[in-house]
Every structure is written in structure tokens, then in C-alpha cells.
Design goal:
The complex is a heterodimer. Chain A contains 20 helices and 19 strands. Chain A is an alpha/beta fold. Chain A folds into two domains: 230 residues, no CATH class; 270 residues, Alpha-Beta Horseshoe (pyruvate-formate lyase- activating enzyme), CATH 3.80.30. In chain A, the strands form six sheets. A six-stranded mixed sheet of chain A has the order 2-1-3-4-5-6, covered by helices on one side. In chain A, helix 14 links the parallel strand 16 and strand 17. The mean pLDDT of chain A is 93. Chain B is an alpha+beta fold. Chain B has two domains: 101 residues, Pseudouridine synthase I, catalytic domain, N-terminal subdomain (Alpha-Beta Plaits), CATH 3.30.70; 88 residues, no CATH class. Helices cover 22% and strands 34% of the residues of chain B. In chain B, strands 1, 2, 3, 4, 5, 8, 9, 10 and 11 form a nine-stranded mixed sheet that branches. In chain B, strands 6-7 form a two-stranded antiparallel ribbon. In chain B, strand 8 and strand 9 form a beta hairpin. In chain B, helix 1 packs across helix 2. The longest helix of chain B is centred in the first third of the chain and has 15 residues. Chain B starts with a strand and ends in an 8-residue tail after the last strand. Classes of the chains: A alpha/beta, B alpha+beta.
């Protein structure tokens, strides 16, 4: 790597600290002292990638190993990419500025579908063959994990290994194996064959997929001996014993989530039917308050962060939240660490917590009723009612809040105009509630209510995995309707671009044939698809056309009960029969109680037990 | 207790912005457990002020900030604890206690010295061309668009190094009215002396710019802010 050249280039790009590294708590090792070099790649810019908790955990975990040096790499922003291509600088890691192609393993985390073209772009910038079958001895093995790994079929052609479930134990086993293999001098295939025996490791090239004439899948089967017909996800059983870093990198730059994220638990017992995370991260496993306080103490000390958030899918469901919040407040308020509770659920949010939170600093309130009527909330099993919402709002307003954000989804199964009207009704009730307090002289500040709608994207491993997505036209009409209906004083309306949601739906439930579309779209310039300024729908539509594949087949088609889905050979814990049963209940408007109250028989107990 | 701290910003962190540096210092102070005073008001923040923003990409051997402590700490302890809590590439060199009434460092600093190292040019020629011009108008980009300034009025002195032909010394005026980036001065001098400046946007200035010091005028003499030490 020509460091002088790199230096000059960095002097000419925006936010060069994205590529600089050298942050506090960055791990420094001599690459010559280790036998395994692991490049942890996040297919988006630094500010996004550094906000991701999984990366923090795995980066520090891998660097605990004496035989391994884990370094980081992010997608260079377009100005940097242009300069790198002009001057022939390959994709490099932040720690040692080494070319990524020099590494043993290159691990991508798959957080959202719209980052897939960035993966191809990063491989290309690294000078690594995009197609797994074209990689030879000496090329890194390309691995992927994260939530989208549960159906990474559209990326199957580009990945050597897919890791399913929680990585803490899995990655250690894989690296142990890699170390042995590297010394043995055996072939790449030999390593993959051995890796495929590790529970949770899926080697896509070891499976053949055949299709029916109408495009549906007819079979997925292993193409060699010793390969499991179904691969089960991995679970870290005991959260108190599961490794968690006590020092994390403190970026110089302002990143998206620039704070300590204290992970209270994994999984969620609510069973919202649209929510993939709620299904794939089962079962619920909590950390003890003692362990959390210990971690908080160490992290505050080792980072100097002035803010801490409690992180999990539904933090207010933590069984000892009151105790934990109180103790965190007692301990850290005097150290001027502010505490924020995101992902709030309406029904367990007590006024007292609001006051506790305010002791240090006031942040805006965010709620996600997701649907505008009780009927539709029952369909999606979002166990929140209007009374709770209004009570919570009242409590929040009384304690001084005047900014509220409400999140909804449009295009949910069975949605009608009445449900959309329900969103506006709810907004009006919130503003009325505030007005009453204002008239009583309790509130002086002007209210600001933000209503955001995202478009529903059916996801694998959810009860709605068989459901069609609304067409872009339908979604636009619904947005138009809401724009009118939400012309309410002090209410602002935000919505998502239906084109992006449409592509998300295609790739979320896509099969292997979409790899060709990805490749074509990337060649036509698609990258940073999640960034509106770069999103290029025309390139995508051409790519589908060139490959004679219809995106509607993936996004807008209702699947039959017995259709073989592209991810059926992956076992995420919840069974297909449970998901189907949940879908039927949804269509009947029946709810399913929280798993802490009553076991719904989702199937996760086959893989591990939690608080359910 | 008000303390002026002298620190470096070295090669490995030279691409962080001034805002990043401020955040880094605040967090280092927290990690070091130094009892910094917090401002009053709705959103209290640690009382910390910086002498002069260093352009992104420029290294420095002498930068200054001052902080107010809520309770006294011995300076050697403060230096050591802070050094331990800072990322590599930022190091505390020295610190002194100053009077609470000392005006802000930013308002006192009037001069910033730089060393520009680049092998591709004849600095003697550049300096001569500069000295021969009575007035040199350059564009300065600011938040409200470009403004024209006379380079001659922005520079105290320029000098090619006597021993090292690669090195140019340039002493810029700085102050509350804002200051000119050394890169603009160098570019202008090279243009005046008809030397090639790689202006094709694809490359940065192939020169290492290093700030050697910041100075205030005290009793007619240039001294570093450490001279504000309380007697």
C-alpha cells in the first residue's frame, strides 16, 4: 500500500476520518505475529457500521485470540471510491491499511437487503473475484452473518460461507478449524467441507437448487456427502457467560449511535407477526442486573461516553427494568452519563421511568403503534391499545415532553382505508390530549408530532412470509391519502420511498437466481441503494429485464402453504407450521399472548430455552 | 482553577476535524477522571476552550486548550492521567495554571507558524516571487461564500529553510477575524513563481503541513500561551 498516495487522497475527500482508524481502544497488533487475519466488513459507511453492536462484539472477541488479528473495513463513500479507483488503491483495512485481499477471512455483516450491491462493490474494490467459484487458493474466504443471513440466497453465488445465528461461539469454532486447515495445506474445498460440519455453518455451494417451470423452487438438496440437509442457527445459551466487550472503540467522528449500548437481552416474547427480529432472535435470554451494572461501569470508565442506551428488541420488557434503571441512575447521574431508553413499548412505559430519565437529560419520545386501528393491531399481534397510548402520552406531556414520534406501517395484510384513517384519528387524539393540558395551563411549549409510515415488507421466518406486498401504486395511493388526512396542526408526516421497499421485498424473499440481477445492477452502477441520493431504480429494472426475472414474482405473489420457500433448508428455530398457524390466526384477527405468559409452541425449544 | 494545556496532534490522527478533537478531549477528560467544571444551564457541558482550530490533515507539535477544574489537581498528575486516557497521536506536553481573568486563548493568539515540506518545488523562488508583489489577492472560502483577502496582510513572514531545500517556513496571522489556511498561501506563492501546483483536484497537496507553534504578543514579544502562567 502506497501510504503517501493514500495520505494525499485522504486530504481531498470528505470526512477522511472514516478511513483513518487509530481511535481510542482500537486494537493494535503486528500482523506478522498472528496466523489468522480477519477483515470484518460492514457494507455501508463508517458512521453506520461503527454504530452496529454485533461488530463491536465480534471485533473485540476475535482480537482476544492470540492467533488472530481482526481489522475493520467499511464501504468507502463515493468520493473516496472514485479516488481509490483512479489511483489504484485497493480496499484496505483501517487498522494497518492492508489490502483486504491479503486477509485469510473476510466477514460481512448483512443488516439490510439494500446493502447487497455494496458487498459486490467492496469485493471488486478489494480485487477479490466476485463469484465464490472463481476464488482460488490464496483468496480470502468470504463469510456473511447477521439477520439477512437467514435468507442470503440472493448472495449465494458470492459467499463461501454463511453463518447462522449468534456468532460468539460459532466464529471461535470456525477460526480454530481455519487455523488447523491453514497448517494442513489442504484445498479450499477441504476447508469448506470441514466447516460445513460446524452447526450453524451453511456453505451455499454445497446445495443444488432446482426450479419448477413457473419459477417456484422444486428442491434444495446437498450435492455431496457429509452436508446437513438443514442447517440450524446457533444460540448463545447464557447471556451472563456470553462474552461481551469491556472496552469498545470510541470513534473520533460523530457516528449514528455514538453511545454505550448496553444489551439487556436477546430475543423478544411479543410475537409481532411482521417482525423478523422477533422470530429469528428467539428465545428471550436476559443478562442479570448485576452483570449489566458491571458492564456499564467498565464501559463508562473505558470509553468516557456521556450517553448510554439500553438496547434490545423491546427494552421495557426487561424483567428487572425498574431496578436496573434506578441503579444505573444512582450510579451514573453524578458522572453525567445520560440514559436513554429506545424501542419503547407503550404498555409498559410508566410515568416514573419518564421522570427517572429526565433526571439527566430529556430526549424526544418515540412510539410504534404500527397500525391505526385495534383490528389491524390484532392482526399483526401488536398488543398495544389506544387507551395505553393516550395514557402514556398524557403522562409524558405532564412531565414536560412536547415532541413525539409515532411510527406506523402501511400495506399490512388485510389493511383497509379505515385503518389508514385510524392513523390520522390517533394523531388527532394525541394533539387533543396536549391541547387539553395546554388549556389547563400545564403546558406552554408548542407540540410537535411526527407521524412516520414505512411500507410493509414481508420477511422470511415471519407469519407473513407467504403474503404479497402492496404494489408501489397502492402504497403511493395510501401515502397520498395520509398526506391529506394528516393535515393537522402540529403534525408532520414522513413516508418512505415505495421503490426501495419494493426492492427490499424482492431480495428479502429472493432465491439464488437474483444473484444475476444483483451483479447486473451493480455493473449498471447500483450501490448505496439505501441512500436516496444514490438509489437508481432504472438500473434495477433493467437488471431484472436483462436476466428475464420478474420482481413482481418475488414481491407481489401470494405463496401457497406447501410452496418450498428459498429458505426452507434453514432452521431458525420457529417452525413453518407455527408460522402458518400464526398467519391463519392473523387473518381471523386473533391475537397470540406474550410467550412469557403462555407457550405458543413456536418450535424454538428444540434449539434452546429462554424465559418462555 | 483554570489550566492551559499544551498538546500535540500527530500524524496518525491528523485527519480528524476540530469538532472531533473537541469531543475526543472531552471524553479523555472523563476517562481520566479529571474533575472538570460543568457549565450551568439546561444542557451542561464541560468547560473547555480551544486556542485555534487546526486544519484537517495538518499535524502540530503545539496546540492549546484551557479547562476549568471544579477542584484542584496537581499538574503532573493531570498531565499523566490525561496522557494515559488519550488516543495515541495526541499527547499532553505541558500545562500551567492561569488566572481566571485571562482572556480566551482564541482572542489572544495572533500568530501561527507552519513548516511545509515538499520536495517538488523551489521554495527560494516562491519566496522571492511573494516578496516582489505589493499585493496578492486570494480567495478565501468561508461559510458565506468566497471572500477576497490580501495575502500580504495575512502573513507575518515566509522563509525557505536554510539547510533543507524541501522545507518552507511560513508564519501566518491569525485572530478573531479568522485566519487563512497555509495551503492557500502556499498555492498562491507557487503560482506566482510559475511553479506547478497539482491543481487537478485528484491529488492533495503533496506536501506535509505541520504547525510548529501558536503565539501571543506579550509586552512586545512573541510568546507561547504557556507564558500566561499565573505567578
Amino acid at each position: 500500500m502506497d501510504k503517501l498516495l493514500l495520505d494525499r487522497i485522504m486530504g481531498q475527500v470528505s470526512k477522511p476520518a472514516r478511513y483513518m482508524g487509530n481511535e481510542y481502544n482500537m486494537v493494535e497488533k503486528n500482523p506478522e505475529d498472528v496466523s489468522i487475519r480477519f477483515a470484518f466488513a460492514f457494507p455501508d459507511i463508517y458512521e453506520v457500521g461503527m454504530s452496529h453492536m454485533g461488530m463491536k462484539i465480534l471485533y473485540h472477541l476475535l482480537n482476544e485470540r492470540a492467533d488472530t488479528y481482526c481489522e475493520r473495513v467499511f464501504a468507502p463513500w463515493v468520493d473516496m471510491e472514485q479516488k481509490m479507483r483512479q489511483t489504484g488503491i485497493p480496499l484496505f483495512t483501517l487498522e494497518t491499511k492492508s489490502p483486504v485481499s491479503d486477509f485469510d477471512l473476510l466477514g460481512f455483516t448483512l443488516q439490510y437487503e439494500m446493502s447487497y450491491t455494496n458487498i459486490l462493490n467492496m469485493l471488486d474494490l478489494a480485487g477479490i473475484p466476485l463469484l465464490a467459484e472463481e476464488r482460488k487458493e490464496g483468496h480470502p474466504f468470504v463469510i456473511a452473518g447477521g439477520p439477512c443471513a437467514y435468507n442470503a440466497e440472493p448472495l449465494a453465488d458470492f459467499l463461501d460461507i454463511i453463518a447462522l445465528g449468534e456468532g460468539e461461539e460459532l466464529i471461535e469454532e470456525l477460526l480454530d478449524l481455519y487455523g488447523d486447515w491453514k497448517q494442513s495445506g489442504e484445498s479450499r474445498t477441504a476447508f469448506l467441507e470441514r466447516a460445513a460440519r460446524i452447526p450453524g455453518i451453511y456453505v451455499p455451494s454445497f446445495y443444488d437448487v432446482s426450479y419448477l417451470e413457473d419459477g417456484r423452487i422444486s428442491s434444495v438438496s446437498p450435492n455431496r456427502d457429509g452436508v446437513q440437509p438443514r442447517v440450524s442457527k446457533r444460540i448463545a445459551a447464557d447471556m451472563d457467560k456470553t462474552w461481551f466487550p469491556e472496552r469498545i472503540i470510541v470513534p473520533f467522528m460523530d457516528i449514528v449511535h455514538d453511545r454505550i449500548m448496553l444489551e439487556l437481552f436477546r430475543g423478544c416474547t411479543r410475537g409481532c407477526r411482521f417482525c423478523q427480529a422477533g422470530m429469528i432472535y428467539r428465545p428471550v435470554r436476559e443478562r442479570s442486573p448485576e452483570r449489566l451494572l458491571e458492564l456499564a461501569e467498565k464501559l463508562v470508565q473505558s470509553t468516557g461516553y456521556e450517553e448510554m442506551s439500553l438496547s434490545s428488541l423491546s427494552s421495557s420488557d426487561y424483567s428487572q427494568l425498574e431496578l436496573l434503571v434506578r441503579q444505573l441512575m444512582d450510579r451514573f447521574a453524578k458522572k453525567r452519563v445520560s440514559l436513554s431508553l429506545p424501542s419503547l413499548r407503550l404498555d409498559s412505559f410508566e410515568k416514573e421511568y419518564i421522570q427517572e430519565m429526565q433526571k439527566v437529560r430529556k430526549t424526544g419520545l418515540t412510539f410504534a403503534p404500527e397500525a391505526g386501528t385495534q383490528r389491524l393491531r390484532d392482526v399483526i399481534n401488536k398488543g398495544v391499545n389506544e387507551e395505553d397510548l393516550i395514557n402514556t402520552m398524557t403522562a409524558a406531556f405532564e412531565s414536560g415532553y412536547s415532541t413525539v414520534k409515532l411510527y406506523f406501517m402501511i400495506g399490512l395484510p388485510t389493511e383497509t382505508e379505515a385503518d389508514l384513517r385510524g392513523i390520522a384519528d390517533l394523531a388527532r387524539k394525541v394533539t387533543d390530549c396536549y391541547s387539553r393540558l395546554q388549556q389547563a395551563g400545564q403546558r406552554k411549549k408548542r407540540l410537535k408530532v411526527t407521524i412516520s409510515t414505512s411500507s410493509f415488507v414481508p420477511k422470511p421466518f415471519t407469519p407473513f412470509q407467504w403474503e404479497p406486498q402492496d404494489t408501489m401504486e397502492q402504497l403511493r395511493e395510501k401515502q397520498q391519502f395520509l398526506k391529506q388526512a394528516l393535515r393537522i396542526r402540529n403534525v408532520e408526516y414522513n413516508w418512505h420511498d415505495p421503490e426501495v421497499s419494493f426492492l427490499e421485498a424482492v431480495f428479502a424473499r429472493g432465491d439464488r437466481r437474483l444473484g444475476r440481477v444483483l451483479l447486473s445492477a451493480w455493473k449498471k452502477g447500483a450501490k448505496f441503494d439505501g441512500w436516496s441520493e444514490h438509489f437508481n431504480m432504472a438500473a434495477w429494472m433493467e437488471a431484472f429485464e436483462d436476466n428475464k426475472l420478474s420482481p413482481d414474482f418475488y414481491a407481489h405473489r401470494r405463496r401457497e402453504k406447501d410452496e418450498l420457500l428459498p429458505w426452507d433448508h434453514i432452521d431458525a428455530g420457529v417452525t413453518k407450521s407455527f408460522l402458518w398457524m400464526e398467519l391463519q390466526k392473523a387473518l381471523r384477527g386473533e391475537t397470540t399472548p406474550d410467550c412469557r405468559l403462555d407457550c405458543a409452541g413456536c418450535g424454538i425449544r428444540r434449539l434452546g430455552r429462554g424465559l418462555c | 482553577m483554570r489550566v492551559i494545556i499544551e498538546y500535540t496532534k500527530e500524524e496518525r490522527v491528523k485527519f480528524i476535524s476540530h469538532l472531533d478533537l473537541m469531543r475526543t478531549m472531552q471524553r479523555a477528560v472523563r476517562r481520566a477522571g479529571i474533575p472538570i467544571a460543568y457549565s450551568q444551564g439546561f444542557n451542561p457541558h464541560p468547560v473547555m476552550a480551544f486556542a485555534s482550530a487546526l486544519p484537517v490533515g495538518v499535524t502540530s507539535e503545539r496546540e492549546y486548550m484551557d479547562i476549568i477544574l471544579a477542584e484542584p489537581v496537581s499538574l503532573p498528575v493531570l498531565n499523566e492521567r490525561l496522557n494515559h486516557a488519550l488516543p495515541r497521536g495526541i499527547a499532553i506536553r505541558d500545562s500551567v495554571v492561569t488566572d481566571d481573568k485571562t482572556p480566551s486563548l482564541m482572542s489572544l493568539i495572533e500568530r501561527a507558524d507552519y513548516r511545509v515540506a515538499g520536495a517538488e518545488w523551489d521554495w527560494e523562488k516562491a519566496v522571492t516571487a511573494y516578496l516582489n508583489e505589493p499585493e496578492i489577492i486570494v480567495e478565501k472560502k468561508g461559510k458565506r461564500g468566497a471572500v477576497s483577502v490580501n495575502l500580504k496582510e495575512s502573513i507575518h513572514a515566509v522563509m525557505a529553510d536554510e539547510d533543507d531545500p524541501k522545507v518552507l517556513h511560513i508564519s501566518m496571522k491569525t485572530g478573531s477575524k479568522g485566519s487563512l489556511k497555509p495551503e492557500i498561501a502556499v498555492k498562491s506563492m507557487l503560482e506566482l513563481s510559475e511553479q506547478h501546483f497539482p491543481g487537478d483536484e485528484s491529488f492533495g497537496l503533496p506536501a506535509a503541513v505541520h504547525r510548529t507553534g501558536l503565539y501571543i504578543l506579550k509586552d512586545g514579544e512573541w510568546v507561547t500561551p504557556l507564558a500566561l502562567k499565573k505567578d
